[in-house]
Every structure is written in C-alpha cells, then in structure tokens.
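S.,

Sequence below, as promised.
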Amino acid sequence: MFSRLAQNSTRQREIAEVVLRNGWGYMRRLLTGTRAEEPQLPPPAVLRNILVELGPVYVKLGQLLSTRPDLLPQEYITELTALQAEVPPVPWQDVEVVIRQQLRTPLEEAFKMINPQPVAAGSIAQTHRATLADGREVALKIQRPGIEIVIEQDIALIRSLADLVSRTNFGRYYDLKTLAEEFATSLRGELDFSLEAAHTDQLRRNLSDSRWFDPDRLVVPEIYWDLTTSKLLVMEWLDGVPLLLANFSGVGFAGDSKAERQAVVSLLVRAFFQQIYIDGFFHADPHPGNLFYLQDGRIALLDCGMVGRLDPRTQQILTEMLLAIVNLDAQRCTQLTLQLAESIEPVNLARLENDYDRLLRRYFNVSLSQISFSQLFYEVLQKARSNHLRIPGNMGLYAKTVANLEGVARKLDPDFNFSEQVKPLMTDLFRRQLVGEAPIQALLRTALDLKNLGLQSPRQVELLLERITTETLQWNLNMRDMDGLRRSIDDSANRLSLSILVGALIMGAALTLANGGTGLLFWVSVVLFFSASFLGLWLIVSILRSGRLR
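The prediction came back faster than expected:
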C-alpha cells in the first residue's frame, strides 16, 4: 500500500528517495515490497537527517515530536530538540511583494526604511528590521511566499501515512492519527501571525504584574496591530544579544557578572513558574535563541509561535507531581500519574509503583543540586508510557519548556540548584491553593459555610430518622461499568437454556426411537434429532468464535 502511495506524486517519490538514501531499514523493506515486521523507528541520528532533508514541514514535525517524551525515548527527544531548518532567505523582491499585499496603505507611507537583509530566516518566515514613518524601530516577520501550499500538501501526505500505520498495533498504541491532527492544527496556527500576535499580547499582559519577580526586568515586545495581518507581524524592535552570548558587564541586576547571572536565572525561573502554575498560559519554546539580554539589562522573551495551556486541575496535579518528584515519593507519583493520564490497557498499579520506586531510588543518595528535574520528569513520562498510559499532549510542551529553561539556567549558572529555586515558589503555590489570594475572605466564606451546615444538619438528621422509622427510605445505587457484566450474564443464560433445550430434544428423539416409534412418530423423532444436532453444532461454533472457551 505504501508503494502505491509513493507513486502518486513527485513529492512522495522524493520522500521515498530520502528514506532509502538514509538507510531506514524497515521502510526500505516496505518500499521494495519485502514482508516487514511491526513498524520500527530509525536510529535517532538517521531520523534527524531524514527530517532535515525532507524540508521545513518535516523539521516542524520533528520539533513537535521533541515535545512528546510520552511517545519517544529520551535519545530521540535529545536529538530532535535542537532540530532547526537550514533554509536560505527569500530574495527581497519576493518579500516586498508580500509586504505590499498585506499593508492597507502604501509601503512608503507606513515605513521610512526597511533593511532588505534579513536578521533571521526560518522555515515559515523571515525577519527584517525596519523604521516606521514616525521613527519607531520595529521588527517585521514576513511569511515565506507560497509556504501554505507546501504545508497543505505535506499535511495531506502525513495524514495518509498516519492512517496507514494506524492499522497496525504500533499505530493504535501511539494514536498516530490524533498526533497527525495535532501537528496539522499546530502548523496551521503558526501560519496565522495574528494568532501569534494575540499570544504575544496575552503573555505581555500576564507578565506585567507579579509577586514573584520585578516585571520591569522582563519585557515582551509590543505588537503594532494596525500593521499586523495573518502573514505580516509588526512588533517592537528590542536591541540586545542572545542570552548565552551576553557578557553581563556594565548595566545589570547586580554588581559583578556571577551575581548578575544568578539574578537572571532566578528571574527566568520565577517568570516561567508564574506562567505555568498560576497563569496556565506559557511560552513553550524558551530556547537560548528566544531569550535576549538587552542593552539596558532587561531580559526579552521573543517568538510566541509555540505556547502551552494548562487547566486548573492539571496545574494542581503538576504542582503536587513536582513536590512528589523532589521528595522522591514513588507512591504519590503513581497516584498523580493515574489522575493525569489515560489508560490504553488495564494498568498494573503494583508494577507502575515499582517502576517509579526503582527510578527514584537511583536519586536517593544524590545531592538535589545534581539532579536534573527535567530529565527526571522525562523518565517519569517514559515509565508511564511503558505501563500503557497515554499522557496528554500538553504535558510534552510542559516537559520541553522546563527542560529548555533548566538547560539555559545551568549554562548561565553552573551552581544552579533547581530545588532551592522552586521551594519558596512551591510554598506560595500551596498557600494560594489553600486560602486563595484573599485569606480573610476565604476564612469568612468557610465560616459561613460551617454556620449553614450547622443550621441545616439537625433538620437533615430529623428527616433521615423519620424516613427510616416510616420505611420510606430508598437507596439508589448506580454501579459503573455494569452493562458489560449484565450482557455477559444474559449471554451465558441464553447459552445454558439452549443447551438444555438441545439435550431435551436429543433425549426425546432417542426415547421415541427406543420405544419402536413408527410412521409419523419415527419421522418426528428424526426431525427432532437433526434439529437438535444442528443447534448443538451452532452453539459449539459460536462459543469457539467468541474466544471465551476457557
């Protein structure tokens, strides 16, 4: 079937050639018509090379897969995390056409100057520096011409391949069709720059106020909505350098370079923990290229193309999971994982807890400063996957965000201690969950609830005793998952009744023949015997086909 797909278009033939050239053994056997076993992934380096050669859309697919530690082993996540498309910039004359098409006013009236040399070029867009007519410096993010056509073609092909592989046990286990739809939605979202602009604005508002850090030290670029469209994003230009290239001298948070690096790390950890655990909306791609150190000492957070969202229930589970991992509590990790994940098959709780216990025991005698929380969380997700649990997709974004953040923090500050950084934040989080933002109001509300309960309880007890004494009390029991048991009992009863009927017919026919039945009685007994034989044979076949003979 795959070989037929590979003959449908030039693009599909190109993909087949790339796969064969890079030596993916399983796919080579499939394409050449050789009988193949269950699908197998290529080695991590081979997979990375294939995705790079296939082009920007498949690089994006690799980047999405790098956020799914519940699907791929750690070595694949590591290899795909740094995946970047090597795309040459689009010539200025083509870019200018896109800008003019998107603007509501002539280009010369909107901009005083646009630098034709891009400052960055990616798989979907490239960025140019420009000056507005009123003198403000801006960054222009312009979508690559024709990229939406390429993306739709490749999305259609990826869906076809996902549908093909989903027919195998491998595909059903990993739910590849859902993953393909998630990828399509994510990629189409990246094509709409107005959506990215909205995300940037929301992040800017959320980080404008905080009790954990100084909001004046963190900046998210302002969006110029009067010039922004679905293919053109115009935002504030921020002068600075990538965070890991900064020398942290001169302007800064503290007097010396080391103290300033530690202050930057503390700022980033607190800002991202607020996004994740309080706001429920977070920048999901804080790699070093998206974190800038500005000339005035502020930290800029750029590129909101990839964001994550967490509902309050998930936030609470992750808060407790963080505490359980830091405390190396295998039993609590098991309970929280079951609340978070969906079971594909019946879960062996004892095995899952033992797996977590063995995992966490490796860290019992290790200093907390030496433990990589992101690595440990990845391993927790891997254990969940090996125990037939499917983790929600946003957990991958969460894990990737924490991993990127922790990686940047350790490069800036080799003495970075994750546990020490998060302990005061965790204390504040639990306090908020217990009493909320207004402790006095929460206390008064609780007191009012207790008062109402005290007033209502005597009357409720009186009604209960009255119903018991007058025999009017009724119990309504609703047991879940009883339909399957009821159907099984009905099937068993029907088969038992049919077996008794067949036995009775055979015995009746045998008795009639034994007593010398002749004429009409003889033929009645023959008909009864053959009818009983047919019904008995049908009953045996139905039992065998059900697979429940034992």
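Residues 1-8 have pLDDT under 50 and may be disordered.

Coffee later?
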